[in-house]
Amino acid sequence: MRIALLTDFGTRDPYVAAVKGVIAARTEAPIIDLTHEIPPYDVFGAAWFLRAIVRYWPAETIFVCVVDPGVGSSRRIIAVEQEGRVFLAPDNGLLSLVLGPRSSVLGFVVTNESLFLPDGSNTFHGRDRFAPVAAAIANGLPLDQLGPRIDEIVQLPYEPPQYGDVVRGSIVAVDRFGNLITDIEAARIPFTPFVLEAHGIVIDRLETHYAGAAPGAFLIVGSSGCIEISVANGSAAERLQMRRLGRVEVCRIDRR
What we know:
- It is a single chain.
- The chain is of the alpha+beta class.
- Helix content is 17%, strand content 30%.
- The chain has five helices and 15 strands.
- The chain has helices at 15-24, 43-53, 96-99, 125-138, 236-240, and strands spanning 2-7, 31-35, 61-66, 77-82, 85-90, 106-109, 149-150, 167-174, 180-185, 194-198, 201-203, 206-207, 217-221, 226-231, 247-252.
- The strands form two sheets. It has an eight-stranded mixed sheet. The protein has a seven-stranded mixed sheet with strand order 2-1-3-5-4-6-7, with helices on one face.
- The longest helix is centred in the middle third of the chain and has 14 residues, at 125-138.
- The N and C termini lie far apart (52 Å).
- 36% of the residues are buried.
């Protein structure tokens, strides 16, 4: 087993180092950083990040996902297994995009306090609960020893894309280059050529790569297979003043 960490802790403070120390003291499983640069409290950002990368990770991976604005409250910690991967996270919607609302999963609430660090903090469950539980799972602890079985998890208020004569979706991420990443999969658009409309702006130019793009906004199929809005050598988010979760529509050119 390997343990992969996804948090909003950053790397300046001692938080990630403490989590790794607790894990390393309890297991020889390798510890891998996915990212610690999720914006603070950004559960949706963590959920989309996880969905975007999980397909590339093998089974026998424990994903420890700690973006947890409800830490110390009555929110649950859950452990869910799907296709040989284990996801350990707060039950705040973080797992809803990768697992889906009706996925066939094996899930449990983590209530076995014997696994937690003694005299733990109400503000740092990442170190005091997630880390020792992840180590125990890596060492072979069956998930059914964590706590009671669950059939449902908290869902984020997210509307998946709809594919039809008009395809409707959302901007789900803005990367560090300012590309506006939508959740519309290019391969599922049932017509071509097409235009995209967002925030009152219509974009009808589809490019195959950045280097050959003329000035102005254009569409491109990104590495996730989804349509992205880009500007050559610039930030589409700043140029077009668009933000995450803005709605977009794709339709045939002749419908405009």
